[in-house]
Hints:
alpha+beta, Molybdopterin biosynthesis moea protein, domain 2, Hypothetical protein af1432, 3 domains, 5-stranded antiparallel sheet, 4-stranded antiparallel sheet, 9 strands
Amino acid sequence: xxxxxxxxxxxxxxxxxxxxxxxxxxxxxxxxxxxxxxxxxxxxxxxxxxxxxxxxxxxxxxxxxxxxxxxxxxxxxxxxxxxxxxxxxxxxxxxxxxxxxxxxxxxxxxxxxxxxxxxxxxxxxxxxxxxxxxxxxxxxxxxxxxxxxxxxxxxxxxxxxxxxxxxxxxxxxxxxxxxxxxxxxxxxxxxxxxxxxxxxxxxxxxxxxxxxxxxxxxxxxxxxxxxxxxxxxxxxxxxxxxxxxxxxxxxxxxxxxxxxxxxxxxxxxxxxxxxxxxxxxxxxxxxxxxxxxxxxxxxxxxxxxxxxxxxxxxxxxxxxxxxxxxxxxxxxxxxxxxxxxxxxxxxxxxxxxxxxxxxxxxxxxxxxxxxxxxxxxxx
Length: 379
C-alpha cells in the first residue's frame, strides 16, 4: 500500500524551524507526521529526534503535463471543441442567440473518447496564448466536470449535461470588457465587481434556450456560489446550490490554479488538491471535493490524502484519526473517534470502519499544525 520508492526522502537534520515542504510528511511506515505546505515547528523537529526518526518522506509536486499514459481525449475532439466554442462566442459578439448544437456534438465526441480511453490521462488543454485563457479554461472545466460526474456514478444523460454546463459556465464573460477579462494581473475592487456579473450575464444568454436543461442553466448561474455561503451572484449555500454546480465549481478552481498565467506560476496538482481540501465545507461540498481529490490523486499517482495517522473531521462533526486501511487509495479507512459532535474529547476512542458505517464519511483532513499537536495529546 505505502510505496516509499515514489516519495522524496529528507534527512531530519535538514529540517529547520519554518521550513515548508510541498507534500505531506510520512515516516518510513507510511504514517502521517506533518501536513503539507505548513511551516515546520521547533517542537515537531524535537519530537522526531526524541522518537529517533532520522528520515521523513513526502510526495514531490506533479504538474498538469506529467502523465505518461495515452491521452483520454483525441486531438480531433479537442479541436472540434475549440471551433464550437469560438462559434458561440462569435454569435454572441454579433448580437445573435448562440447556437448550442455543435457544443452538444462536442460533448458527445468527448464522452465517446472518455468511454473508449477510460484509463488514459486527463489531457487538459495547455494555454498557449493568455488572451485565449477563457476559451481554453472553459473546455478544460467541461472535461474535468465530465470526468468527475462519471466517477460519482451518474448516468450518461447527467454526465453529458454537466459537461455541457462546464463547457458553457463562463459564457457570460463575453459581456465583460476584454481589458478586465484578459488583465495580466489582479483585478481592482471595481473591476472585480464588474467581473462578478458574468454568471448573471451567462444565465441571461441561455435561460430562454429550450434545448438546454435547467441543470445546465443552474451551472452557469451558480458555479461561483460557495457551500457555506458568501459566493456570488445570489449568496446561496448548501443544497440550494446543488451537486452539479459544485462539480463545475471544483473543476473550475482546479483548472484555474494549475494553469500558468502572465502574473502567476501554476500550482502543482498536489498543491491544487491541497487547496481544495482546505476549502472543503466552506467553498466546496465535502461529498464532491473529497471524491475529486481521491480520483485525481489516484490518476496522477500522488500519495493518498488519507494516510494512516492523519487526523480527520467527519460529516457528523466528529474528529478522529486514521488507524488503518485496506488499500492506499481509499475514502473509507478505519478511524478512531477522538471527539464527539460537540467537540468533547472521548475518554476511550471509538473505533469504526467507514466501509461498514455508511452514516459517516470523511469531510476533510485536519492540517493546522497547532490543532494537530493538540489532537496528538488525545492519543
